[in-house]
Design brief:
With 208 residues, the chain is mainly beta. It has strands spanning 20-23, 26-29, 37-39, 43-46, 51-52, 60-61, 67-69, 73-85, 94-99, 104-116, 129-133, 139-140, 150-162, 166-174, 183-184, 189-197. It has two domains: 1-39, no CATH class; 43-197, Sandwich (Jelly Rolls), CATH 2.60.120.
Amino acid sequence: MSILVLTSDTLIGTAAAGNIEYTSPIFAATPIGTQRGIVPTQQYYRLNADYVGSNATGAQSLFGVGVTLSASTVYEFEIIFALSKTAGATSHTIALGFGGTATVNNIGYYESLAENNTSLTTLAATNDGVVFIQTASATVITQSFGNATKCAISIVKGTVSINAGGTFIPQYTLSVAPGGAYSTVAGSFIRINPLSASGAATNVGTWA
């Protein structure tokens, strides 16, 4: 087995086409001119079967796992998930947030939601919503509803600056126990990759 090991160093002053560089926490490559870019090195988790949650209040893990992130690092992430339940008609809302032992300098993410009372494949356009959220704390992303059958699909894209390293756990919180548990459905996934050291604007490329 062959292994290529690069030692972290400062990026060269002027990038040139064909360069491959490593400066922790990123690999960089220059495909053309001086247009250096980040080579994504994603940590990835995808559900192969439905993950059943709890018919309860309090934050609960969206996937049943969290990812361990490094200190003083900015990450980019994307989550696509669907929640579905078939029982329980107590009116409630759903909030999205992030828990774990990592501490956050700042976070910003786009969240788009569509939901209905029938199935994951017939979503009413009038039930769509888009927000930009700047806190890791639980933020309500749905209207209040009390249908026994409920389905919601969400797309989440954003960045987070980590202060102290530790676990980073996507979570959802029900305002009240609805009478039936939600499941995060198979095929839902999260991917996350480092962008830069924290503390300044991320700047990789020919920005000026």
